[in-house]
Amino acid sequence: MAIVNRLTVDGRDYFLPDPVTELKGKILEAIKAGGGYVNVPPLRGGPGVDILFSPGMPVTWSQFEVGDSGAQAEEPADDSSDYDL
Questions:
Q1: I want to staple 54 with a disulfide (CB 3.0 to 4.6 A). Which of 35, 70, 80, 83 is the partner?
Q2: Higher pLDDT, 84 or 27
Q3: Phi/psi at 53 (nearest 5 deg)?
Q4: Residue 38 has pLDDT above 70, yes or no
């Protein structure tokens, strides 16, 4: 299982890998300073996106677990245990 963080800014969702502690601090600093750009990194590679954060802007964080896409259900090794004979 992997943890994914969702940052919702003014109705737009950005999905981020863990950890996000440093990013949260940068966003808070920008808002306290009266506004500023913060680079939000992508979930997978790339330059990310610069977002202008300002006081009063709706920002929401959520966190959830996602399953591994390569995982498959395990098959029982012996079918005889599944039936009463």
A1: 35
A2: 27
A3: -100, 135
A4: yes
